[in-house]
Amino acid sequence: MIEERKVVPYSGNMAAAEALRQINPDVVAAYPITPQTEMMHFFADFVANGLVDTEFITVESEHSALSAVVGAAAAGARAMTATAGPGLALMWEILGVASGMRLPAVIALVNRALSSPINIHGDHSDMMGARDQGWIILVSENAEEEYDNLIQAVKIAEDERVRLPVMVGMDGFIISHSIEGVSLLKDEEVREFVGKQRMFHPLLDVEHPTTHGAIAMSDSYMEFKRQQREAMMNAYKVIREVGEEFAALRGKKYEHIEAYKTEDAEYILIVMGSAAGTAKYVVDRMRERGEKVGIIKIRTFRPFPYYDLADAIVASNAKAIGVMDRAETFGGYSGPLFEEVCTALYTRNKFYPIAGLIYGLGGRDCNINHIEEAFDVVKKKAAGEEVPPVTYLNLQV
Amino acid sequence: MIEIRWHARGGQGAVTASKILASSAIREGKYAQSAPDYGAERAGAPLRSFNRVSEKPITLHCLVLHPDIVVVVDPTLLKTVPILEGTSENAVLVINTDKTPEEIRNMLDIKDRKIYTVNASAIAMEEFGKPFMNVPMLGALVKVIENLVSLDSVKEDIKATFGKKVSKELLEANLRALERAYREVKGE
Amino acid sequence: MAQVSDKPKFVTKGEIKVPPIRDLTDSREGIAPGHRLCTGCVAGIILRQMFMAAEAAGYTLVIANATGCVEVCTSIYPHTSWKVPWIHNAFENAAATISGVEAAYKALKRKGMLPSDKKVKFVALGGDGGTYDIGFQSLSGALERGHDFIYVCYDNEAYMNTGIQRSSATPRHAATTTQPAGKVIPGKPQPKKWMPEIAAAHGIPYVAQAAPSHFNDFMRKFIKALNTKGPSYLNVFCTCPRGWRAKEEEGILISRLAVETNYWPLFEVEDGKWKINYKPKERKPIEEFLKKQGRFKHMFKPGNEYLIKELQEDVDKRWERLLKLEQL
Amino acid sequence: MKGWRDLEIGALITEPGNSAEYKTGEWRAWRPVFNRENCIDCMICWVFCPDSSIIVKDKKVVGIDYDHCKGCGICAHECPKSKGDDESKKALVMKPEYLFREED
């Protein structure tokens, strides 16, 4: 039986900080960066008031934040950090270290654009830059999802079949700084759900000394990468299992994708993050006008849910598809999500007209009009009309 | 769904007022959002903040383009920012000014729409000696928009938000300012 | 529940007596042979002396190693030379990494998740590249935060792991692959950065400079650092026969000459108080140190006397400063 | 090397000090030859050996670990009993490795 939950007015940052408090990690190392800063203010407040047992390391850079998290996770601790945009970029080198060492660390990521020009607002270029660094990537639509995903992330990361770090993204400002109703779990529920961490040859087992972070020459490096690929494939299953387990607690199921009104949809947009919410609203509105539209929201970006996505598209009546990317792949065809969608379909021998749509860079608003414009492009594509390979939405021309 | 846009200057507490509004609505079991439109500006620069309040879940995550209500916290913004942008003739304007709604209508040549005014600056100065017009403006807003949130919910939220951070005196001054504006706001 | 606020409470111990080395020969070695350090690499000696001291003081070391010669040569999968917990993360973050390990230790100890009651000390280990240069920021951060650890820099005065490129620890006029002794520019134009004073400026409880040739002094300092609560920084002279173009058997001799010429003074800074541990009765001229090393060969060419003079001036200036610091 | 399924996850090494399996003695061009009769067990060679290759038992030097000794010569160079020219009085003498390899 699902109990009535307490709904609180929280920003994304507050929700994430609350998840961290309830998870009560052993070590949190973080460096302030807009728009993540206030998440760490809230958490620091928990530390200062004895509401967590966490060792909070106020490091001098994001690079050191993740470096300390790597040290702590290898030591056997449950370790977390939080960052945004350029902070994640500064961590980049250590992202691969964490995943290569198979450490179950978790980053609460507030998605922010990368410089230059400097911009503090939300887009996915930070996360997409990190997409191939061996981290599991979960993307949240709203504050409650960020909260839920962070709690699940701990369990996913520490699963013996996975042992990979996880980053959980939410759009900077749009989610991180907006107040919404967030339904909270009870402290005991969260603690029971995440459980006590499992240690895999912890560095601090001084009775059994281990060497972490060895150098692997060309005779074994590739084998370790193959192991990581296997772990990612396992993660695909584990994320689903953890989602099901979480559903028993939450009454809301988290899957790799969320197909919204796609069953009979002729035009489908693929969206990730906060814009998915706006897109759902637009779908409802357009359906009132009798238009057969739907969206697919991507929640798991790594491992990418090729099967789920292709299944959902194949099961629909799609005539054409639009892929909305909140990041660029300069010199590529369209955005990173576009490439993944093409791969998902091509490898299933399914071919649909696909339109590339770039939106929301540097926090540029993506409202109802822009989603409708995106559907217009998809419709044109379906009708065989000429559309540019990539359409920038809400661009001043 | 009701959509609100706040106009203020950085440091005047409009973001906080907008948060309190969303917060109070959520406490009442409604669905609400509060989203500030942050720039790189600092205290003093014009800023906007948005609210959505609804009986049904809100999934929209974008700026409010067509506000049903516009709240102007700082009267000096009346002529400098496009406060009517995106509003329909049915929109409601709640303005901090010492003028009457008619005077504002004539001064800014506003057609249609419903105008309410309240001297929030005076209330703020009288109640706490500082130009924090956000809470009084919230009081006025609650009064003029029926069924948005109740004054009691807002009071509860102000206590929860400020209770730990400010002195008892300041908290009470805020509550007085809220109620005064609630009473003193005038419509045409 | 919550931990007591971690206001650093630094404690240092007074005089330390190092047991005679003969008594240390029974002790377990923390590092196994079979590592791939160059023939005659003095870093191997420094590590062994470090472990001798730890053993004498009853500590188990947990090490975070910056990328560099020692790291690469001791951990080539599937082999490790380490007999203690050891982690390598990256080049520039040994101090940040050990911060995380030390924080994890506190948290797990509190939760009762660490069964062993062994005395543990955290050590970050790096060469001069990982310390003076690329790892400078993370080192400064960790020192300032007051983690309970020892930072050991084995200073061989250039980036040896990548092929003898200059570092900020390279002395004036030394030839490196990125600042070779050319016709126009005779080696590195800038003097050596003085890392120990920078470390000391953090107000940490213990900073020392040591040399493996003077192993009693080094081990005493290492034990002092072990017994210090809070961060310590040790700057250790490390001959690199390959990079310095010196004879493999002369690594310790060169270390001794570095001390005897005042090129590498032995000193310590305990709670802000500077103390020179060894003052040569007759300071040897810098040439004696230089002539053993090919990296200084060009300085002995006719017409280049001024190069030696300038380096001697650097050494004298530093020594005079030390004498003044000692008076504070 | 093992197949990818059998390698330790994340390149972790769980056998402390197993580098001893790797024989760096192969690198040696010069061999330290130890003469027990001249040794005073001062342990200078032991404290300065970069490769843990001076074998000490019961506080006495008993020999050289030729499996790992790289032949740097620091031991002989630093040995207080190995100064001067008279080889017969020295405790450690460096000799070219080929002399011994040919005998093998």
From TrEMBL, chain A:
Gene3D superfamilies, alphabetized: 3.40.50.920, 3.40.50.970
Show where the Pyruvate:ferredoxin oxidoreductase core domain sits. Answer: 265-371
Q: Which organism is it from?
A: Desulfurobacterium indicum
Protein name, per record: Pyruvate ferredoxin oxidoreductase
Pfam name, any one: POR_N
| Cited InterPro entries | PFOR_II, Pyruvate:ferred/Flavod_OxRd, Pyrv_Fd/Flavodoxin_OxRdtase_N, THDP-binding, Transketo_C/PFOR_II
Q: Which GO annotations describe the biological process of this protein? A: carboxylic acid metabolic process; response to oxidative stress
Family matches, as CDD domains: TPP_PYR_PFOR_IOR-alpha_like (cd07034)
| Top-level taxon of the source organism | Bacteria
Q: Which UniProt keywords apply?
A: Oxidoreductase, Pyruvate
The GO molecular function terms of this record are: oxidoreductase activity, acting on the aldehyde or oxo group of donors
Domain (Pyruvate flavodoxin/ferredoxin oxidoreductase pyrimidine binding): residue spans on this chain? 19-242
Q: Which gene encodes it?
A: porA
Automatic annotation (TrEMBL), chain B:
- Please indicate which superkingdom the organism of origin belongs to: Bacteria
Keywords on this record?
Oxidoreductase, Pyruvate
In terms of InterPro entries, this protein maps to: Oxidoreductase_gamma_subunit (IPR051626), PorC_KorC (IPR011894), Pyrv/ketoisovalerate_OxRed_cat (IPR019752), Pyrv_flavodox_OxRed_cen (IPR002869)
Domain annotation Pyruvate/ketoisovalerate oxidoreductase catalytic: ranges: 10-182
Q: Name one Pfam family in it.
A: POR
User: What GO terms are given for molecular function?
Assistant: oxidoreductase activity, acting on the aldehyde or oxo group of donors, iron-sulfur protein as acceptor
- Transmembrane recorded as keyword: no
Protein name as catalogued: Pyruvate synthase
Automatic annotation (TrEMBL), chain C:
Name of the protein this chain belongs to: Pyruvate ferredoxin oxidoreductase
Compositional bias annotation for Polar residues: 167-180
- State the InterPro entries in the record: PorB-like (IPR051479), THDP-binding (IPR029061), TPP_enzyme_TPP-bd (IPR011766)
Q: What keywords is this UniProt entry annotated with?
A: Oxidoreductase, Pyruvate
What is the originating organism of this protein? Desulfurobacterium indicum
Q: Name one GO molecular function term.
A: oxidoreductase activity
| Any single GO BP term | small molecule metabolic process
Residues of the Thiamine pyrophosphate enzyme TPP-binding domain: 67-236
Which portions of the sequence form the region Disordered? 167-189
Determine the domain of life of the protein's source: Bacteria
From TrEMBL, chain D:
Cited PROSITE patterns: 4FE4S_FER_1 (PS00198), 4FE4S_FER_2 (PS51379)
From what organism does this protein derive? Desulfurobacterium indicum
Keyword field: 4Fe-4S, Iron, Iron-sulfur, Metal-binding, Repeat
Can you tell which superkingdom this protein's organism belongs to? Bacteria
Which residues belong to any copy of the 4Fe-4S ferredoxin-type domain?
A: 30-59, 60-89
Taxonomy of the source species:
Bacteria, Pseudomonadati, Aquificota, Aquificia, Desulfurobacteriales
The name on file for this protein is: Ferredoxin
NCBIfam families attached to this UniProt entry: PorD_KorD (TIGR02179)
- Cofactor annotation: [4Fe-4S] cluster
Q: What GO terms are given for molecular function?
A: 4 iron, 4 sulfur cluster binding; metal ion binding; oxidoreductase activity, acting on the aldehyde or oxo group of donors, iron-sulfur protein as acceptor
Task: Extract the SUPFAM superfamilies matched here.
Answer: 4Fe-4S ferredoxins
One Pfam assignment: Fer4_21
Supply the PANTHER family for this chain: PYRUVATE SYNTHASE SUBUNIT PORD
